[in-house]
Amino acid sequence: MFDNGSRYITRGVGNRIPLDIQIFIWQLIEDLKDTVGEVDYLQVFDISIADEVEKIVRIIHSQEVPEYKKIWIVKSSEPCDSQKIFVIDDDTHSTMLLAEEY
Q1: pTM for this entry
Q2: Taking CA 102 as the corner, what is the angle to CA 79 and CA 70, rounded to the nearest 5 degrees?
Q3: Beta carbons of 87 and 43 less than 8 angstroms apart
Q4: What is the tens place of the pLDDT at every residue in 6-49?
Q5: Count of the separate structural domains present in the chain
Q6: Residue 82 domain flag
């Protein structure tokens, strides 16, 4: 999973999620491949605002099989609304989309 090299984002992600957070999410998936080994086709990221003034967000990264959950606190380059993001891999490409776009 997530080895095909073709990555896409939806219009919603492009409009609402800062680029540095998008890149961080892709990197988390790459790191998961190196540490856990088995990566589910569906990666879930819950983004919430931890500190609006300092532009700090909390990202909860999870997958179902094998069960995995980790919380990250990161500073963003610009404000980011709370969102749920899915990254789905179908063996030909990987797509990052807002949960509401699914």
Answers
A1: 0.94
A2: 55
A3: yes
A4: 999 999 999 999 999 999 999 999 999 888 878 999 999 999 99
A5: 1
A6: yes
